[in-house]
Specification:
Elements (H helix, E strand, L loop, with lengths): L1 E6 L10 H8 L3 E4 L15 E4 L1 H6 L3 H18 L2 E5 L8 H13 L2 E5 L5 H8 L8 E4 H5 L12 E4 L4 H11 L8 E6 L7 E6 L13 E5 L8 H12 L5 H5 L6 H16 L3 H24 L5 H14 L2 H4 L7 H18 L19 H14 L7 H17 L3 H21 L4 H25 L9 H15 L1
Parallel strand pairs: 1-4, 1-5, 2-3, 2-4, 6-7
Antiparallel strand pairs: 7-10, 8-9, 8-10
Length: about 475
């Protein structure tokens, strides 16, 4: 007793393999996953074709359809020899086949797979494409179910089973997370048959057509410029290679420290300026530092980029059980509480909890002073050491300012000023305002107004030192008016 699985090819009966044709033409009865396949019209009339299309009509979920088809083929295989036919190649996008092969092996049933041309070969012909030029093959249904495509944008891709507008719409939304709306793609209809069509159009328009069907495939060419993470890693690895750049090869984790800090602040500057173009460029510069550190780690046999990504990916999923698990949250405050609880559990599991002697442990030492003050205040608040209301915080700020005004000793004055700044950082935390961002914004605002004062003074051929207090006040008020 043998289950023979035959690939029917892309749709043209002349594209059946010789082995497949011999098997089918000598058969009295065959079973097909679906009768909606043009190849069946070219079979000898002596072959009785039985399909599982009725299961499609009775079941909405495709996973259940394929499971039921596999069940039925295995039942037939237990009773005697059976020929089961599927579109294309049996092992290209055919979950019923992989299920049957796995379960048949477990049950001790013999199987034979007879190859057929898949949708890929006629698609290559239609597009005049070399598959070895990095071609990726994916299931459109898998892409449609994701939020970001599992595709390298520097390599072309074929997405099978774009069989209706709903699937095309979901695929489009996923691809738009990586490709521009005007990225030129191609819809391939019924390739390998006399009805073959290749339609080029912008990605944004793929779900606006009425001719999508079960033999529709989407071709997504590579991006015109390097845009994939792997290609960027290759660039960095090349720079660090023996034939690469002497400066890059000399760098260490410590030598790059200042550049990491500089690039981080340049990203913050772009954010403060609300400049998307600058932000795009600065994020690239920051990414360079991250990938360069990872490559140095590879060269030093410390770790590799997949470990970096695996670690942060697992952490994000672990700390978002309300997204990737069964936990229910009502608002962002629930999320924060869960986050802290999970962090504490992780610390216990990793043995870090025993090393921490204080609720304040865990604040990075390299933070700017104002950010560190806010973080320390937040840690204390999580340990229930905080004011009952914001009124107490405001009173504390006033108290510290009064104490600063009352001291005359320079050392004490510095100490009291520090207390004022720390109380301001706590006030920012209560107001849910990032003190670093607020201060940078205020500094930038002052700089704009001061430059305007300088400009106005130059117009009158006056130096700032020559102006009276009243004149300076007048220029400052004018500068404020201009900035508004």
């Amino acid at each position: 007793m043998t289950i023979t699985i035959v690939g029917l090819g892309p749709g043209d009966p002349t594209m059946l393999t010789r082995c497949a044709w011999d098997t089918l033409s000598n058969a009295n009865e065959i079973y097909v996953r679906t009768a909606r396949h043009p190849t069946l019209e070219g079979l000898p009339p002596s072959v009785t074709v039985k399909s599982f299309d009725a299961i499609y009509e009775q079941t909405i979920n495709f996973a259940e359809v394929y499971a039921q088809v596999a069940d039925e083929v295995l039942r037939l295989g237990e009773a005697g020899d059976v020929i089961y036919c599927v579109p294309g190649h049996p092992l290209v996008g055919e979950s019923t086949v992989t299920d049957i092969l796995r379960r048949a092996k477990e049950q001790g049933l013999a199987t034979e797979v007879i190859a057929g041309l898949s949708f890929v070969e006629p698609a290559l012909t239609a597009l005049q494409l070399d598959a070895l030029d990095g071609l990726q093959i994916a299931d459109a249904l898998d892409i449609a179910a994701r939020h970001h495509p599992t595709l390298d944008p520097d390599r072309p891709a074929l997405l099978a089973q774009v069989y209706n507008r709903a699937v095309a719409s979901d695929v489009k939304l996923t691809l738009l997370n990586q490709y521009a709306p005007d990225h030129e793609v191609a819809l391939l209809n019924a390739v390998g048959t006399t009805y073959e069509q290749v339609i080029w159009l912008p990605l944004a328009e793929i779900d606006r057509r009425d001719d999508l069907a079960h033999l529709t495939t989407l071709y997504v060419p590579a991006l015109p410029a390097i845009g994939g993470f792997s290609a960027f890693q290759e660039t960095i690895a090349h720079l660090r290679a023996p034939e690469g750049c002497p400066w890059d090869r000399e760098q260490t984790h410590q030598s790059l420290r200042k550049y990491l800090l500089e690039e981080t602040y340049e990203v913050l500057e772009a954010l403060d300026a609300d400049d998307p173009e600058a932000l795009c460029e600065e994020l690239g510069d920051l990414l360079l530092q991250i990938v360069l550190h990872a490559q140095i780690a590879v060269d030093n046999e410390e770790f590799r980029m997949p470990e970096v990504i695996a670690h942060i990916d697992a952490k994000l999923k672990r700390r978002h059980p309300h997204v990737f698990g069964e936990v229910i949250v009502n608002d962002s405050e629930d999320v924060k509480r869960n986050w802290q609880t999970i962090k504490q559990e992780e610390a216990i599991e990793n043995g870090k909890a025993e090393k921490r002697q204080s609720a304040l442990d865990g604040v990075p030492r390299g933070l700017p002073a104002l950010a560190e003050a806010e973080a320390i205040g937040g840690k204390a608040a999580h340990a229930n050491f905080d004011w009952r209301s914001i009124d107490g915080v405001i009173d504390k700020v006033a108290e510290e300012i009064h104490e600063l005004q009352s001291v005359e000793n320079e050392t004490e004055r510095e100490d009291e000023l520090g207390d004022v700044l720390f109380s301001i950082a706590n006030l920012a935390r209560w107001l849910k305002i990032d003190p670093e961002t607020a201060l940078r914004s205020a500094t930038a605002k002052f700089s704009r107004r001061f430059r305007e004062v300088e400009r106005q003074a130059r117009e009158h051929n006056r130096a700032l030192g020559e102006l009276s207090d009243a004149e300076l006040d007048g220029l400052w008020i004018a500068a404020k008016r201009t900035s508004r």
